[in-house]
């Protein structure tokens, strides 16, 4: 079972486009009907797959007889105004799929969503790719690895065949060695995989410890999902090449089903996490559904940015945060706006939160700029407070921290000052307060009293610390402070005024 809104969103990722209005997107889909040309009126279901029907009018009539809410047609034809009017009146959703996507792939996605949704939400794992790797290995008579688009190993055959050092290193490291990947990039192997379904043989390279390879792309429509690698010194005979292509097609179906399952898992998890960090009247029930403790929790906030790649960084971070099914991960995550939020079981010691963020960011591309914040410890009902603290920590200016990760436990003072600055900046500051007059004095006399005063206040009167911040000699700071104390509009002995001046200076100087 899946809601219509989710079905439309998922199908659109595989080249499908929505035409005409959709019925209420909260409607639940429970069944699938496939057109049977021998018995065209025998099938009924919520989703109608118009297999073998390219004419939209005919597909619409067949779907109406099948009492379907969603019509899926594989064609390049576009609906005419009359058909659009009929869709408007009936409220049916018409999904047109690019003919390059096979019906087997479309059916795999639809059946996985509609018929297996309940099992997936309960935590059912992905398809057994290892068994499939063994099957392909037996058919071609050679060791096999199945890898994703980034050359990470998803599965490998277990048959005791002779393997070269690169094969064993790839399995042990769970990804293709960087030197070998670079070699394949130079040879144009990945360019070939991106544009062709034909397997390609790679001659041995003894200096790299590499035996021969034959590789085939794993594709869903135009999208490259991964690749199947066969360790073989010589090119495969045509019969084995055909078997490899068939195996790659089966891998694509498995990956589609796995992705659909993961999508459903993420949807349920995301909705529950958002409910908790926004504040839920039934927080204990939501925590129970997520399968994590109700106490000693922290909210982690993370953003990832890259020039020229809008949203790509944060989407990749969310994918890594939710890789694996709920029962195999310690945290529960959601993508809310441009931020990944994770609820992590973590007591008074924030070390597990740091480790979790380090593991996540270690797998992201080096060019991404990542900032993160860790909220304080909370229970199920106080997670909104931990979320606010994580947001505030993430928004803190960069400091001496190596990884741009701030934790509320260690940064509470900076968070508190930031809160005071935020509150103070919402109103109108006095136009003739001491800070404004000091700024004006600096502008007229080319002095550096404003940064000196700010550094001195932040250092709590420590001349050496202030001098280190400014990059000047302590005597310079001492001389400037002496001159400022002589100014009648500055009262540096009043504790309350010093605090207010520090906040005002932070607002004025950014």
From TrEMBL:
It holds the Pfam family HTH_30. Residues 450-506 form the PucR C-terminal helix-turn-helix domain. It comes from the Bacteria. InterPro entries: CdaR-like_regulators (IPR051448), PucR_C-HTH_dom (IPR025736), PucR_C-HTH_sf (IPR042070). This is PucR family transcriptional regulator.
């Amino acid at each position: 079972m899946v809601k219509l809104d989710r079905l439309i969103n998922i199908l659109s990722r595989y080249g499908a486009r929505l035409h005409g209005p959709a019925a209420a997107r909260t409607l639940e889909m429970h069944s699938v009907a496939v057109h049977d040309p021998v018995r065209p009126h025998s099938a009924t279901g919520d989703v109608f797959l118009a297999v073998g029907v390219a004419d939209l009018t005919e597909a619409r009539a067949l779907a109406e007889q099948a009492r379907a809410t969603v019509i899926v047609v594989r064609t390049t034809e576009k609906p005419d105004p009359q058909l659009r009017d009929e869709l408007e009146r009936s409220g049916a959703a018409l999904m047109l799929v690019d003919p390059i996507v096979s019906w087997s792939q479309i059916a795999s996605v639809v059946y996985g969503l509609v018929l297996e949704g309940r099992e997936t939400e309960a935590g059912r794992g992905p398809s057994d790719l290892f068994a499939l790797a063994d099957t392909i290995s037996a058919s071609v008579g050679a060791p096999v690895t199945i890898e994703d688009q980034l050359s990470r190993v998803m599965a490998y055959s277990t048959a005791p065949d002779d393997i070269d050092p690169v094969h064993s290193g790839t399995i042990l490291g769970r990804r293709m060695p960087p030197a070998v990947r670079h070699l394949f990039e130079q040879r144009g192997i990945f360019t070939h995989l991106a544009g062709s379904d034909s397997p390609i043989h790679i001659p041995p390279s003894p200096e790299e410890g590499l035996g021969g390879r034959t590789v085939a792309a794993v594709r869903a429509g135009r999208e490259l999902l991964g690749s199947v690698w066969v360790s073989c010194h010589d090119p495969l005979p045509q019969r084995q090449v055909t078997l490899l292509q068939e195996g790659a097609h089966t891998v694509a179906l498995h990956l589609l089903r796995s992705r659909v399952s993961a999508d459903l898992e993420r949807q349920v998890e995301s909705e529950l996490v958002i409910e908790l960090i926004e504040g839920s009247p039934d927080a204990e029930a939501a925590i129970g559904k997520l399968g994590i403790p109700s106490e000693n929790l922290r909210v982690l906030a993370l953003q990832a940015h890259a020039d020229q790649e809008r949203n790509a960084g944060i989407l990749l971070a969310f994918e890594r945060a939710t890789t694996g099914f709920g029962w195999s991960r310690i945290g529960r995550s959601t993508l809310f706006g441009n931020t990944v939020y994770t609820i992590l079981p973590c007591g008074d010691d924030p070390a597990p939160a740091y480790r979790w963020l380090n593991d996540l960011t270690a797998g992201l591309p080096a060019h991404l700029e990542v900032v993160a914040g860790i909220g304080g410890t909370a229970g199920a009902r106080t997670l909104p407070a931990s979320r606010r603290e994580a947001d505030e920590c993430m928004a803190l200016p960069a400091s001496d921290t190596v990884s741009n990760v701030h934790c509320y436990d260690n940064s509470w003072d900076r968070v508190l000052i930031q809160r005071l600055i935020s509150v103070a900046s919402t109103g109108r500051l006095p136009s003739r307060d001491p800070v404004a007059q000091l700024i004006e004095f600096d502008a007229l006399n080319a002095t550096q009293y404003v940064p000196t005063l700010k550094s001195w206040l932040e250092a709590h009167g420590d001349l050496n610390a202030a001098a280190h911040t400014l990059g000047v000699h302590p005597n310079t700071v001492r001389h400037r402070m002496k001159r400022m104390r002589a100014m009648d509009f500055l009262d540096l002995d009043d504790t309350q005024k010093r605090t207010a001046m520090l906040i005002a200076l932070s607002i004025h100087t950014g």
